[in-house]
């Protein structure tokens, strides 16, 4: 009997490969889940994120979730955590629109944040409106998240709050691309410098989570104390790109966590300075007069 030749075996291998690929779902199909939303009471809203996917269980069962309300009851002044050390540089970026917001992804090295000697590379930034965190019970019109990742996968986020006022310089440079994203999903943004960080600026530090599924915990949060300005037009543009949707997760329980406050000066009897803290957050002028001038 004549033995099958090489062409027959090649044909057989091709058929087997096709059968296996058709029988097994692709990796994207295997992990595909229904998209989440921010509507309270919705089957896919924040109250049900942890039930939508077994990998999102932390959204429901996690004890160190974000966002939280930064308030004086849980704050300890701690200079030992040190000033925010950032080394950012201008780098190419791509802006794209997800179903819940606008994201700036740096495609090259845009610099890093150093925490306890560990480098976290800046990967992307995005906005939430209204703000996700609260400062002393107040929710602001906008919050920026600058997401950094270390070589071993740990995540650190710098958060900046905004109140209505003059246009934000960082957003001002990006508004023409935001306008394009109203009708497009992706746009090259060219060279984009990250937002400037003031050397020695006071900030709040706590350990929390991602504010979107899978709500991964162990995230190091640094919330800049000074509330910056953004124009109403800029916020409208950001929201219009995602059809005006709210994209802020509800406040999560603190569960006994301590919030550390770093500031260049730290009086021993710091609790009596919290009224002063609030004034500093509200006004750049008062911030200069009360927080940066020593008497």
Automatic annotation (TrEMBL):
Residues 1-30 form the signal peptide. Coiled coil: none annotated. The keyword Signal applies. Keywords: Lyase, Metal-binding, Signal, Zinc. GO terms for biological process: one-carbon metabolic process. Residues 34-263 form the Alpha-carbonic anhydrase domain. It holds the Pfam family Carb_anhydrase. GO terms for molecular function: carbonate dehydratase activity; zinc ion binding. It catalyses: hydrogencarbonate + H(+) = CO2 + H2O. It is an enzyme of class 4 (lyase). Its cofactor is Zn(2+). Its EC number is 4.2.1.1. The keyword Metal-binding applies. Reversible hydration of carbon dioxide. Belongs to the alpha-carbonic anhydrase family. This is Carbonic anhydrase. It comes from Elaeis guineensis var. tenera (Oil palm).
């Amino acid at each position: 009997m004549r033995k099958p030749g090489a062409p027959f075996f090649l044909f057989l291998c091709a058929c087997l490969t096709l059968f296996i690929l058709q029988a097994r779902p692709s990796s994207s199909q295997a992990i595909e889940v229904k998209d989440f939303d921010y509507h309270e009471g919705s089957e896919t809203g924040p109250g049900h994120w942890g039930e939508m996917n077994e990998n999102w269980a932390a959204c429901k069962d996690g004890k160190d979730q974000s966002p939280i309300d930064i308030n004086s009851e849980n704050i300890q002044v701690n200079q030992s955590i040190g000033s925010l050390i950032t080394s950012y540089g201008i780098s190419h970026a791509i802006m794209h629109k997800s179903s819940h917001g606008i994201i700036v992804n740096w495609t090259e090295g845009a610099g890093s944040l150093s925490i306890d000697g560990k480098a976290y590379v800046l990967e992307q930034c995005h906005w939430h409106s209204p703000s996700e965190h609260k400062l002393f019970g107040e929710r602001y019109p906008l919050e920026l998240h600058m997401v950094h990742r270390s070589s071993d996968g740990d995540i650190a986020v710098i958060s900046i709050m905004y109140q209505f006022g003059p246009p934000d310089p960082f957003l001002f440079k990006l508004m023409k691309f935001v306008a394009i994203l109203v009708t497009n999903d992706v746009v090259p943004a060219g060279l984009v410098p990250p937002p400037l960080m003031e050397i020695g600026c006071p900030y709040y530090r706590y350990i929390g989570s991602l504010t979107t599924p899978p709500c991964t915990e162990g995230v190091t949060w640094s919330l800049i104390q000074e509330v910056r300005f953004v124009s109403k037009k800029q916020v409208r543009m950001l929201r219009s790109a995602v059809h005006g949707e709210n994209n802020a997760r509800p406040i999560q329980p603190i569960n006994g966590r301590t919030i550390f406050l770093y500031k260049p000066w730290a009086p021993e009897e710091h609790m009596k300075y919290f009224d002063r803290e609030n004034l500093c957050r509200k006004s750049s002028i008062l911030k200069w007069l009360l927080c940066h001038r020593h008497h």
